[in-house]
């Protein structure tokens, strides 16, 4: 037989046929599933492009095939490692990748092994194998390993060894974290902003800017500039993708004519054409793509005289790509555009199939083309909870906010059947409206980008208001979210924290309870939830929550913080301290655990150790106002009033709306004999939160010390109506009535104070005041209650 001008042996004939069939990259990928002999012939085809002498009759294949068998081994191992990483089989991935690197040492394989180590929580292993690498990818992985090992200096050096930071937005974000933990606030802010400029969807960078108090307006950060950058990035990716597909189309069309001359159609008696098996190089190739993926094969002979028409369709038209977990590539997005019909960007070419083959594989094409809607519009069809007129100028009511969560389950049940039907019925419409190979619709792309950025604007605006402690504004912003977004665990946690900062613990308890019921596996924010139960003195619920969290994850610091709050509520400060220290062992950068440790040490009157804990918390987060407040209370108990004033002042600069901080700041000013400033601070605290009884109590105490008894009595009588069960209020009233010589009312209030079960120390003081009612003021020694 004469092919290409010279006589070929039977092995050469099979090789030429496979080479002609495997010109396109997609056919090569399909032939990789064939037995070893077929893969060897396929690899020999690659060699002919670089070594034309390989096609000569005198060429010997064995020595050349060894090199390409090794290349095929490398590809196989690398693919297996990637598959193990996606399936969370980290130990198996490490084992195979170590074999891969030993057999084929290269920088790419070294990076793959480092990824395996980092995925398996072995940053020390990644650190040692990557040390000294110079490529950008290796430097980023090395810097990440150093960051995990708390080697911030080496991590910074690895990222800044060249002018360009490796990793793009991720590299700038990592460098920002390094600067933040190193105490270089301005540099970290700069890096987080650069990360956002590289990738507007880098939400964590914006969240860090919010925590640093340097975040810009969300409408600007996620505005027109961000939209243009996202559009440019997505369009460039689509162009590259379409160019690659166009090359495949040209190759496929060029090879289609050659395929018809090589494979000839003959009918085989006794076999259905759909069930016909094609024998190739000792393997049976099933026409069904699903059977072919299962890898069922039997050794048999090669029959050149009975080629099947099905084989032409199997090799010339590969099955459509299927996606695990219904996750589509980034270049293929599906968006709803304000109630319009759904549009798709389809990248596969329209293959020319036989009529019977088209009918047989329609389900496979539908499975490949079906997409999951990523974003929903907030138009007239979406269920958005609007404000009532009474809520337009204030904090939204809890019932209206939780109403969103209550309606969702019934609406999801009603719409689930409709959504399935819509998805199925829209497939044919999408095929007709957007045939394969058509260019993406720019309107759909821009609408999708607009939807994403509008969502981030709302979330970013609410998050920024919350971390600036504008809690009422944050609650109003979160009200703008759709039901589906509002019902997520993250948003409910933000709403609950806003109520906590407003000291509205009852509403905070309702929101946190709802969030925990919807996502019992989520532990983020559960430390704050346990603090809410602590303030409400819900000992039984707090204990149950702590046990539940530990059962979910014993290695979570939030679980141990909940346990510590439970023991602290029971006045077992030693046990609470052990729980909080356990949380610190699990996460040394968990700021709240350090602060809670300081609170317990202050309760044990170990003020020196408490101060260390507070300062450790501030070294992690300088805007953690609870630590500044704890330092101020420590100095106040030690009668270091000037130091206490400084700590309270810093805490007040961070959270200017906290009436509790204002109260204790006023006490520190009063103890320093700055009474006018103290009274102004108490008035400011009352305006900030009229429900806080501390501000009125301390104002009355300052007025009594200044001798203004009538104003003090007015404040206390008003306070007694709002807080009738506070023994300290009745005791202070008795003391003032004694000063104005109204002994009957003094005795009555002292008795009421004793009936409310005050602390033992307060009981002793109240009884001493009652015994000295008739003693002149000049002869008695007054003690503060």
From TrEMBL:
Describe where the TPR repeats fall, as residue ranges on this chain.
557-590, 591-624, 625-658, 727-760
Q: What is its main location?
A: nucleus
Gene3D superfamilies named in the record:
Tetratricopeptide repeat domain
A Gene Ontology biological process in which this protein takes part is:
metaphase/anaphase transition of mitotic cell cycle
**InterPro entries in alphabetical order:** TPR-like_helical_dom_sf (IPR011990), TPR_rpt (IPR019734)
Classify the source by domain of life. Eukaryota
State if Repeat is listed as a keyword. yes
* One Pfam family named in its UniProt record: TPR_8
UniProt-annotated stretches for the region Disordered: 342-364, 380-399, 412-443
**A GO CC term attached to the entry:** anaphase-promoting complex
Q: Does the keyword Nucleus apply?
A: yes
Q: Where in the cell is it found?
A: Nucleus
- Which keywords does this Swiss-Prot/TrEMBL entry list? Cell cycle, Cell division, Mitosis, Nucleus, Repeat, TPR repeat
Q: What start-end ranges are recorded for coiled-coil regions in this protein? A: none
Bias class Polar residues marks the residues at 390-399
What the record says about family reads: Belongs to the APC3/CDC27 family.
Full protein name = Cdc23 domain-containing protein
Please report the organism this UniProt entry assigns to the protein: Brassica campestris (Field mustard)
Which classification does the entry list for the species?
Eukaryota, Viridiplantae, Streptophyta, Embryophyta, Tracheophyta
